Amino acid sequence: MAAKSKGKSPSYFGYPLSIFFIVINEFCERFSYYGMRAVLVLYFKYFLHWDDNLSTAIYHTFVALCYLTPILGALIADSWLGKFKTIVSLSIVYTIGQTVMSVSSISDLTDHNKDGSPDNVSVHIALSMIGLILIALGTGGIKPCVSAFGGDQFEDDQEKQRSRFFSIFYLSINAGSLISTIVTPILRAQSCGIHSKQRCYPLAFGVPAALMAISLAVFVIGSGMYKKVKPQGNIMIRVFKCIGFAIKNRFRHRSKQFPKREHWLDWASEKYDKRLIAQTKMVLKVLFLYIPLPMFWALFDQQGSRWTLQATAMDGNFGSIQIQPDQMQTVNPILIIVMVPVVDGVIYPLIKKCKINFTPLRKITVGMFLASLAFVAAALVQVQIDKTLPVFPAAGQSQIKVINLGTDNVIVRFEPRLQNVTVTPMESTGYMTFETSQLQSLNITSGNKTKYEIIQLPGQNRHTLGIKTTATEIIAKWLFDNVTSKPEEGNNLIRFINNLPDDINITMEDASFGTVTSLSATNYASFSGGRKDKIKATSNSRTCSVTSKVFGFGSAYTIIVNECTSDNLGVLYSEDIAPNTVHMAWQIPQYFILTCAEVVFSVTGLEFSYSQAPSNMKAVLQAGWLLTVAVGNIIVLIVAGASKLSEQWAEYVLFAALLLVVCVIFAVMAYFYTYTDPNEVEAQLDEEEKEQRKKDQHIYENQAEVVSRM
To answer: Taking the model in full, what pTM does it have?
Structure first.
């Protein structure tokens, strides 16, 4: 039952009613952020048509900005607006940013010629950048405020309820993250558009924008129930001022005539009290250990960039379920939910039973090593993917594929004496690579018929040579294959060759290829992967049809229409580009290893930091921890930009090696670290202050007695 007591906000089962609004607000906000972020790198690659490196760079710049702005949010909340007004103000900015992102992904906005592609990509890029900056300001700015604001709603005697609130709060974060990472890729994979159907990025960004608007509305509705603590100044500012004064004072007294002090921060004692200096020393001791940590986040956050791009070249067919590349990110939150209780309840107790002293810093070291191992696993998967990728002609080269459309064997000789191939009826060769300058002519022989042809092909292109032997001659048809890369997003490219004597009109599902004359070919058309479609051919008022084979993902096929009898269409398939054959399930081991790394690194890191810092310095360490994430994403930009590695597997190995080196450095630092108990230090400070007050009181009483005798 709900109840309201004098001087307190309404409560429900002993909990302030206001926290339910805060939990719902956090769920919607995390859904909004992670949902948008899940599809972001594919939006860069496939909508804005940026290459993998630029897409990765902008993605990590955005993530870095999201983890830099919490410091700004904390300063605004603690020194100026207070937590409530900061959350509301920056949530409005956040909602506008999400809305701008959704608008930026509408191709019809600048698609004046109605061809399905934006005519002015610069407009979409500008809107996207504005949207992402606003989102970074919003999500980063409210990050340090919401959980603390929730904690403020409890009374001093509600410690148990406050602890449970934080558990529910973090559960809402994981729930929002998990659900959104499943849902938004499904929305992205839909087709929508006014003039032509495209991937539905406006919906994939629009739903997170709507959830952010709901988040803001829910938070504002609970306004009258909140306990709003007035801003009391930010401890970070005091710490920075203390450090700044110590450095400046030490520089002023750098002469040898001034005696050295035990610690360089002791030079702040002229202005700041002993307690603040001692607390700052403890914080700096922990922050020094943070220095190697960004390298872990440099690897961890590539789940949303490099690993997602890796999944686009893989087979996502899980039986009756088709997994989108950006949905593979859900493996991490799912495994987190499973692994945290397993590690805490099984692994750690087993290690303890083996009498191994598995200290927090050792756990963090193991986490770094596991993350490095995860990238070795990613590199091994990438090597297998690279083996399946098609090889396209380089500059000065041409590739030729021969299809025999007749009923007799065909021998093709590429002159001068370059290569001979024999092609059986209704079969085709693979693509053969030639130096364009050397390829001058070809001789085609079929039975007792011969055809000689001089050829001049443009370099760096693929070509298909269709050959059909009739009763009187050999017909050779050249087809220009205007495909220079593997189909994107797991789509398939399909084209048709009419091997019938009459003209036919070809359709495949809703796509019309128009009228195709005899021995002519259509252009390639793109179809979504993992499906089979109905093919229809109409000629002289007669229609034949057949259901196609399942094409897989990322393939290209030439379908040869051979016969139309009894309403049945006879077709043959010539594979131009092989489908993705490495299954997405092979990414699960690298996700599993990285999730294990996260459990022993991230959870332990926060726990260790809090155990080593004074109670009033938790916010400083929280800011420092978030800063390591930001720096980690900046490292991705630097390493990926400076390495200039042409092979993706080599970049994975590079990151793994760098983290391994940093892991060794951290292990050495951890070996020399001495654990401290902030409670003992603060208790000692309390005792010293108490003794000092007694001395001051005694001096005051003596002075008073002297004055009274005068």
So the answer is: 0.83
